[in-house]
Write a structure and sequence with these properties.
The protein is of the alpha/beta class and 325 residues long. Helices cover 37% and strands 27% of the residues.
Length: 325
Amino acid sequence: MHNYNELFEKLSAKKAIVVGDVMVDAYMMGKVDRISPEAPVPVVSVTDRKYRLGGAANVALNISAFGTEVYLCSIIGNDSMGNVFKQLLKEHNLPDNGIISSENRKTTTKTRVISGGQHLLRIDDEDASQISDELKEILMFRISQIIENEHIDVLIFEDYDKGLLSPDIIHRITMLCRQNKIKVTVDPKKRNFDAYKYVTMFKPNLKEFCEGCKIDRTTDIEKLKPYAKNFLQNNNIDILMVTLSENGILICTQKNYVHIPAQIRDIVDVSGAGDTVISVASLLLTASEDIREIARIANFAGGIVCEKVGVVPIDVETLKQKISE
């Protein structure tokens, strides 16, 4: 029996940086009483609006839930949604010294229209082009300043393909972390899949892994194993963690493979589950070398957030209770 209180106490003393695409998750809640006379679509009468931290900011929020000090490095627009984003950081006591406001970008906003618990529509308002060289230099400067001033234990790349991360910036940040003995973990997307070399842990979902390795999608663990091993060797990565949704998690090093089956849960909404898994696994890596335990706890954490509507961070007390049962 593990002493989880002791483990979680260790986590609260750690420091982390999250680098990636941030966004505002906006929710418009309303009633639908009729169909529009203009087109065969429902008319939503808005009763409530909510804003939450999304993308890489949701990862930072999950990490701060453990009492861990976390720095978020990203770029937002100098616009009204950028102000909403900064206000949300303040409300959650997250520092904004790694956030750059740019006149030439817009703040990525995903608006979900919800009625009676049903998700009717999502509207994405974003600029996903690559950031300018000038912004890259400002970003590098902010990250290196934080690394210089704080004793950072882990850096998490949270890649949402919105233009912040490119192969050159990924390489520069990874090398900076290696020089400073900082663990590096990755939640990748398709565009930069092959750009992450020499990182500690790489966490794609099954679809991303199969597409990235150019193989047919399969849930047959035995078929995935040789590809997993090759991927680790070719990219000099220590740990590969593939989330398999209802089939749990596959975690591998170059020597070991561990498959953790999924928890049977009442799934309400899967959005944000990947953010929670990378957050919890990255933090655990700073305090434990037991890959089975890391995968097991991260798997529980991902399952817990699927029981809530919308993108929500992990409730640490619930997690402690579940993993001790």
